[in-house]
Amino acid sequence: MGVYSDGSYGIQPGLIYSFPVTCEKGKWSIVQGLKIDEFSRAKMDATTKELVEEKSLAYSGLLGVIFF
């Protein structure tokens, strides 16, 4: 599920990122402790880079400044 990152799995805090989650009584929690292999880590890092760039471009449209 796409949720705000809290830094889990090395994902930059504050990004909206797809994590494995559990939902209980209307609240979600990121599943912790899953092992990430090299292939998956490379894909996660590439996705994170894209999301950071997209977030920067979105803010630049609002604020007129590009952040990376």
TrEMBL record:
Example GO BP: malate metabolic process
Gene3D superfamilies, A to Z: Lactate dehydrogenase/glycoside hydrolase, family 4, C-terminal
A GO molecular function held by the record: malate dehydrogenase activity
Short name of any one Pfam family annotated for the protein: Ldh_1_C
Keywords: Oxidoreductase
Taxonomy, superkingdom: Eukaryota
Domain Lactate/malate dehydrogenase C-terminal, residue spans: 1-56
Protein name: Lactate/malate dehydrogenase C-terminal domain-containing protein
